[in-house]
Design goal:
Length: about 220
Amino acid sequence: MTTRSEELAANLRSVQDEIASFHPKLIVVTKTYPISDVEILKDLGVTDFGENRSDEGLKKSEQVTGNWHYQGEIQSKKIKEILSWATCIHSLDNLTHAEKIARTAGENAVKQDLFLQLSLDGNPERGGLVESELFTLAEKVADLSAINLLGIMSVPPVDLEPAAAFAVTSQVHQRFIKLFPGSPYLSAGMSGDYLIALEHGATHIRVGSKILGARRYD
């Protein structure tokens, strides 16, 4: 019978083989999975982990060292907690939050890595900003000394084919790089579409179920 360690090792190797020619940063999204899975992944050489809920990220990061990425909705009251464990934030779309992040990071004498979240459909329930708003926010965030703006993050709308969505995202990304050459990265692509995202210039991919299997809620 295959052990959980053997299962994760095989799945991880499969993904690594698929993405090897693109050389992206692979973030393994461990939300809802037990800490035992994170420990196995750590032993297999994974260094970057992603979480969508701050309380879960805080708890797991206390038990497993690594680069922890926060990609969920940002709540003002949670910012200090998020910064206590998250190496990088992928979902900034609000100037007030940016300013609070900068203040908190400054108080801790650190620079916080983050991405601005692009919205392709302008749906406020999904987070993110449309291109014009995103660029306006980027100009202001770039002036905050305690923030290291890495680039942009995007999740395709559910009613748009991934290839079409990432084609648009790529165009926005190229325009973004021209205006903000010091922030060249693109966080895009998850378990169902990361290869398509990589073909359109993604530098960071966030993969969960492709490596860990069906979501676990126990």
